[in-house]
Amino acid sequence: MALELLAPAKNADQGILALRCGADAVYMGGVRFGARQAAGNGLEDFERVTGEARLWGAKVYATLNTLLFDAELEQARRQAWGLYEAGVDALIVQDMAFLEMDLPPLPIHASTQAVCDSPEKVAFLASAGFSRAILARELSLDDIRAIHRTADIELEAFVYGALCVGESGQCYLSGAICDRSGNRGECAQPCRAPWNLVDASDRVLVREKHLLNIRDLDLSDHLEALADAGILSFKIEGRLKDADYVKNVVSHTRRKLDTLLQRRPELGRSSLGSVRHAFTPDPTKTFQRGLSTYRIDGERRPMGNPESGKHLGEFIGQVLSIQGDRLVLDTVVELHPGDGLAFVDGAEVAGTVVNAVEPRQLFVQDPSRIKSGTRLHRNLDLQWLKVLRGAKVERRIPVRAALDFPEGAVRLRLEDPSGYVSEARVPGEFASPRDAGAAAKAIHEALGRLGNTPFELAEFTLAESRFVPLSLLNGLRRDAAAALEASRRAPRERQGRRAPAPKLNPLPSRALDFTWNIANQAARAFYERAGGEVLEPAAELQQSLDGRVVMTTRHCVKYELGWCQVHDNPEPWARLPEPPGPVFLENGPTRLECRFDCARCRMELVLHDRREPG
What we know:
alpha/beta; about 25% strand; Elongation Factor Tu (Ef-tu), domain 3; single chain; eight-stranded parallel barrel; 4 domains; about 25% helix
């Protein structure tokens, strides 16, 4: 199987941009039931993107990956069929209710929200008829290898973008305290908010820090190891991100993947078209909360970013002194007027704009919240951003061209690597030229001018040298290229749905509590048919989760503060004595008890007490 670069699409324009930057596939949300409620698209948007994707031999996946309530099942089924008619290539789902529906003949991909985190779970999903599992982001290479050995299924992994601090599909914090369920596409991201850390006597140990905020993921230097571990699709997070992010990150990852494929062509690529970028991608220049490799090698390392849950950008230096709008820095950094600066002021991120630059000195628009010792970051590099936005990105499919002269005509034939063929011909008699070499060169040059098409001339064959007027050659080239493009954009036969196994693999657990996210009767029927006993419905159908675990995470406050007795943290961001009893996270009326499962290297957050303000 060939490798796939999978890019996010907030809307049709960004989907087309991602494809032209080199994506082999894109994923988009429909009008409802996508895990990013604010990134919905109508069927006409999907039709635009699927037409573009077919041109490159790429694919479009539709996200239907929220939990469904009983009253929504029929609407979800109809939406799935509408997406099929719009040309999508697969459906990404979380809710097992879809397996009980009359669905269109398309592959079904198990969303990361379906908790694809163990060999047993992924093997079960494969036996149920899923074609692909989108793996939990917290898995290591060893975890992925174990899943690949056990489960006969395509594997997809996130390689860039925001990380959920909670284990995929099993975070209930937003729903419990904000009445906005992440499993319903409504996450309010309370994990990015500032929290206090308090002890059992309500003494504040850490005040207003982003204690659950973790850095973003960048595995672009681990693509080969991931491919060797069994990953087929490399996914970029970001269906809420802007076009600058998509252009920059897709281009960056495409370059990394192309370098790998040049060295190891046997891995293969799942779409066509070489990409040329007239800029140098740099992931640090667009939205990111600091980059990390998370747990890819299985090692425990600091993951937290307690200063901010927002994009600070690249660190440029510390303010030594300030006088009016003039800042003196401790370093010399190349900045330019118009650059945006960000800094942490208490629990907030503030910012200003550079007006003028001198060595070690800046003049800024608003210095009111800056003081001596402030650490400055550049979160907008104006010159780089102008280059990014103005830079042309070209994606071209190589074609073979052949010109011959059947009786009474001249004919141009184009063929691409997929075997699509187009022809254009013009009737007439074409005499032998006085200079055969010059005529052949002119024909080659005229037919190679494919710059306003998606193609580039890779090989040319001329049956014999004859004189053909330039206007006729141009017309042949335009007509043949247009016909080839139309053939490639036309609807094609798609892969069908994988049949479930005669007997389902065992469930990892027979006793199914609220963490199995069973929110409707169809999902209940599926799990009962699979041998499960449904003990309680999904969290979204419960009155309260007080006293229950609302998040399990591999990010650990105990480790981040240097209190862990198992794993040494060489760089704790604060040095505090560990209190003797339990510790809690507090934000307004919300209180979460931190429980440390050191045997599994996990932290659990229990909704301990939800007090009314005042």
